[in-house]
């Protein structure tokens, strides 16, 4: 287990508990009471830390290297039914954007999402979850295919942003994202969006227009990352904690502003502490949302989606 800077008190207590357990196993000394005291203190420390997380600490948790990524959710929810589809039929296949068909329960879904890597080699292969224009065009191709066959769409968002390289701009990065947003507004099939990690800028919005949008508890969703905001306003990354607070990017801030439909709870410590519970929570929320949407007529579905996003940003004095 890797520990973040604010988790170091937990690390120390867990190491003490391990040592206490080893002493009890390797000697005749009864250390059960000591172990129980450490366990109690560990539980109290965890609750104290995780129940009072700052916005920046939630950003750190959303980037935790042990956190489940899009393909982890796909395999957990869809199992052996997953059939990956490739390519944008224009340029090439983008490994940062994955998509395909899967069954959750008895219902088929088209799942589209950004995939990060879990080590140096796979991070380079997946371009750190930063999709090129062909990734967004692949996503749109799959969503239009789902529309054609009446299959609901699930999008799983986890990206530090769309790839900002020169070649991406040359191939129309801005147009590809704008086209996705435009087409998703009008898509004639239910769209359920879940932010499973980072939801940064237009890179997230390119697959983020949904009838129902949910965020896992320790994720963030914003027009800009705290580091980039800090570097623009203060010309330094040192104010990233202050920027994170000001951006109101946590799931609780987003729910309060009415920009998302719900928060999916995570186990104490984050999604990586208990993956199975996290997967079950995500599956439950997806199926509940689908049951709310499946009986709507196509005109009602599209009208509600349009109305939902049209109301965002309204101000009543």
Which key terms come to mind for this protein?
single chain, 317 residues, alpha/beta, 8-stranded mixed β-sheet, 8 strands, 15% strand, globular
Report the order of strands and helices.
Answer: HHHHEEEHHEHHEHEEHHHEHH
Number of E-type strands: 8
Strand content: 5-15%
Q: Indicate the mean pLDDT.
A: 95
Structural class: alpha/beta
Write down the overall geometry. globular
**Fraction of residues in helix:** 40-55%
- The total of helices stands at 14
Please describe the biggest sheet, giving its number of strands, its sense, and whether it closes into a barrel: 8 strands, mixed
Q: Give unreliable regions as ranges.
A: none
How large, in whole angstroms, is the Cα Rg? 21 Å
Classify the oligomer: single chain
Ends: how far apart? 49 Å
Give a written overview of the molecule.
The protein is an alpha/beta fold and 317 residues long. It contains 14 helices and 8 strands. The protein has helices at 8-26, 32-50, 55-62, 70-78, 120-125, 133-148, 166-170, 173-186, 201-205, 226-233, 240-247, 251-256, 275-293, 298-310, and strands at residues 83-84, 97-104, 107-114, 153-159, 191-200, 212-216, 220-222, 262-264. Strands 1, 2, 3, 4, 5, 6, 7 and 8 form an 8-stranded mixed β-sheet that branches. Strand 5, helix 9 (201-205) and strand 6 form a beta-alpha-beta unit. Helix 1 (8-26) packs antiparallel against helix 2 and helix 6 (133-148) runs parallel beside helix 8 (173-186). The longest helix has 19 residues, at 8-26. It is globular, with a radius of gyration of 21 Å. The termini are far apart. The model has no long low-confidence stretch (mean pLDDT 95).
């Amino acid at each position: 287990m890797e520990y973040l800077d604010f988790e170091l008190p937990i690390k120390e207590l867990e190491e003490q508990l391990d040592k206490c357990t080893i002493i009890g196993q390797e000697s005749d000394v009864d250390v059960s009471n000591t172990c129980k005291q450490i366990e109690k203190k560990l539980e109290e420390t965890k609750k104290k830390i995780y129940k009072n997380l700052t916005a920046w600490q939630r950003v750190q948790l959303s980037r935790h290297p042990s956190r489940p990524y899009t393909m982890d959710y796909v395999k957990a929810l869809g199992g052996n039914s997953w059939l990956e589809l490739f390519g944008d039929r224009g340029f090439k296949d983008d490994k940062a954007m994955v998509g395909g068909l899967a069954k959750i329960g008895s219902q088929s879904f088209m799942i589209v999402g950004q995939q990060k890597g879990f080590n140096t080699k796979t991070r380079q292969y997946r371009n750190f979850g930063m999709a090129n224009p062909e990734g967004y065009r692949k996503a749109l191709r799959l969503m239009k295919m789902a529309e054609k066959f009446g299959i609901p769409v699930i999008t799983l968002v986890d990206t530090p942003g769309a790839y900002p390289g020169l070649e991406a701009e040359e191939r129309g990065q801005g147009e590809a994202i704008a086209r996705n947003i435009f087409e998703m507004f009008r898509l004639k099939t239910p769209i359920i969006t879940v932010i499973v990690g980072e939801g940064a800028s237009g890179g997230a919005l390119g697959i983020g227009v949904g009838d129902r949008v949910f965020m896992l508890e320790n994720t963030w969703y914003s027009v800009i990352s705290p580091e980039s905001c800090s570097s623009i306003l203060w010309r330094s990354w040192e104010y990233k904690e202050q920027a994170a607070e000001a951006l109101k990017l946590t799931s609780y801030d987003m729910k309060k502003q009415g920009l998302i439909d719900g928060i999916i709870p995570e186990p104490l410590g984050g999604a990586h502490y208990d993956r199975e519970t996290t997967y079950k929570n995500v599956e439950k929320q997806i199926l509940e949302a689908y049951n709310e949407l499946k009986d709507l007529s196509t005109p009602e579905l599209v009208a509600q989606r349009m109305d939902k996003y049209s109301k965002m940003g309204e101000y009543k004095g």
